[in-house]
Amino acid sequence: MSSPPLSYDVLVVGGGPAGASCAAFCARAGLRVLVVERATFPRDKVCGDCLNPDAWPTLARLGVEEAVRRLPHVALRRVEFVGRIGQTVSLPLPGRARGEIAVRRRELDSLLLENAAQAGAEVWQGTAVSRVQWSEADGGGWIADLSTGIRARVRFLVAADGRNSVTARLAGLLGHRRAPDQAVARIGLQTHLPCPADFGPVVRMRWFARGYGGLAPVGNGALNVSLAGPPGTLDELKAWARGEFGLPADHPWRTIAPLDRAPAPLAASADGTAYLVGDSARVVEPFTGEGIYYALRSGELAAESLVAAARGKDAGAEAARYRREHRRMYHGRLWVNRLARFAGRNPRIAGLLLEVARWQPGLLRFLTAKVVS
User: Fold this and answer.
1) Where are the alpha helices (DSSP H) in the chain?
2) Given a cut of 70, is residue 142 above it in pLDDT?
C-alpha cells in the first residue's frame, strides 16, 4: 500500500527569486509551505545579474537587504550604449540611496532560498514535479507527484519555475499556445569570465549585426557577459566574445530558449488555487535588467493573496486581486521594455537612434531614468 500524500498549505515549484519570495512571506505568516527546486544551489542562471533599485523595498520586507549588500557585488554608476559600428553614448545612472547593483545569481538566489527556509518553509532541492492534478477528494486540493517518489497534497499551487514552466503546463494554466515564430525567435547566451581591470562600475549594452549583449561586473573579479540573437547567430556571438576577451574555443556558455514568450492568460486561476509568479506569468525583455524585481515583487503579491485566502477570505476574489496588482506592477514601464525588445531585434535602427542620441542624449537619459526608477 502506498503512503498517503504529505500535506501542506502551499506548494511552490521553483526556488528562484519569485518562488523564494513567495515562500518566505507565506511561511512567515504561518502557512505550511513546501518548496521544490529541480536544481541544487548554488547554481548560475542565464541572467544579466543586475538588481533594479525597485527591488530593495521587497528585499527589505524579506529582511535580507543588508545581507544582499554584503554579497560580492558592484554598485553600478553608468550605462554605456554601444552601436553595432562602435558609436557610443555613456550616461550616469540616476543617483539614488539604494541604487542598481550587479550581483551574481548563484549568490543572490542561494541567500533568498535560505531565507525562505529560515522563515519556516520546507525546501527540497534536486526535486522536480512530474505531475500535478486537481482532486475533489477531501474538500479539494492539488496532488503533486515528485521525482523523489513522494506525493504531496496542497491547497494552493505556485508555479515559479520560469519562462518554460513545466508546472503551469502540467496544471493546464497556460491555455492554447501557438508555436514560437521562428522569424523572431531568439536564444540567450550567458557566461562569467575574468573582468578586465579597466572595465569600471558600468553596465554596457552592445549591439551586433544580428543581436545584442549586456556586460556588467559582478564582484570578485568576475564579468557577466549576456548575449542574445536568433539561433543562427550563436557562433558569431561567441566568436565576438572570444576575440574581445581572448576566450578559448571551448569556453562554457549557458543557454536559454526561447528568449521570448507570450504572457500567461491568467496570473492566477479563477478559483484562486493556483498562482503564476515571475517568468512563469510574464517574460520581459532582459535588456532593461528588471526581471529580478518583477520576480521578487510578484512573489510578494501572490503571498499576500494566498495568506488572505488561507485565513478565510474568498479565494477567487483574492486571485482577482493578485491579477489586478500583477498588471499594476508593470503599469507605466512595460512600454519601455517593449521598446527595448524592438531595439534588441533591430540593431540597425538602434544604431541610428544612438547616432541621434550622441547629439541629443536627453531621450536616452529619460528612458534610463524610467528603467532605473
Assistant:
1) 17-28, 56-62, 65-70, 105-119, 166-170, 234-245, 291-310, 315-330, 334-345, 347-359, 362-371
2) yes
